[in-house]
């Protein structure tokens, strides 16, 4: 059985990875299955560095192939904020609602056409005794002035995807798993995974 360990305790991400990798025939486990494992400190200054740090640390611990992602939101009008601090934008405790409110407050005076943004995802695959592989994906959109939709997590309720005329949180998971930054990174990863297995 092809097994992948996902280096995250974020239930929303785990579900997305289960859906995405399940289609490729992988069984997915995550750090939710190992609650005693402490979070790996993300000391990198880029998504790529943080994903690599997490993947390599957990792979070393378990001796398994580990996939880690680091992802977040770049808002052009805020000079790229929140960027690598997306999960902790409003404080060290990860709080989606507080992060959304802080972002909306910081964009209060920004007109609709200047609220361009993109989700960015770096995926790192750490393989015991081999070089870590990193791929990236993005998804372009706009930041709304208020929340719409109940699905997803993080900034999804305020991230509007123009070609679909919906926020990420208004999309069903099948649609999101075709167009999201994580899905786009995974598309880059598929040929790599096929070579490994």
TrEMBL record:
Keyword Oxidoreductase in annotation: no
GO MF annotation: an example: dITP diphosphatase activity
Cofactor annotation comment: Binds 1 Mg(2+) ion per subunit.
Keywords: Hydrolase, Magnesium, Metal-binding, Nucleotide metabolism, Nucleotide-binding
Residue positions binding Mg(2+): 41, 70
Family: Belongs to the HAM1 NTPase family.
One of the record's GO cellular component terms: cytosol
Organism the protein comes from: Priestia koreensis
Protein name: dITP/XTP pyrophosphatase
Summary of subunit composition and partner proteins: Homodimer.
Residues the record lists as binding substrate: 8-13, 71, 153-156, 176, 181-182
A Pfam family that the UniProt record links to this protein: Ham1p_like
Membrane-traversing stretches: none
Entries under SUPFAM superfamilies matching the protein: ITPase-like
EC number: 3.6.1.66
Cofactor(s) needed for function: Mg(2+)
Top-rank EC class of the record's enzyme: hydrolase
GO biological process, alphabetically ordered: nucleotide metabolic process; purine nucleoside triphosphate catabolic process
Catalytic activity: dITP + H2O = dIMP + diphosphate + H(+); XTP + H2O = XMP + diphosphate + H(+); ITP + H2O = IMP + diphosphate + H(+)
InterPro entries in alphabetical order: dITP/XTP_pyrophosphatase (IPR020922), ITPase-like_fam (IPR029001), RdgB/HAM1 (IPR002637)
Role of this protein: Pyrophosphatase that catalyzes the hydrolysis of nucleoside triphosphates to their monophosphate derivatives, with a high preference for the non-canonical purine nucleotides XTP (xanthosine triphosphate), dITP (deoxyinosine triphosphate) and ITP. Seems to function as a house-cleaning enzyme that removes non-canonical purine nucleotides from the nucleotide pool, thus preventing their incorporation into DNA/RNA and avoiding chromosomal lesions.
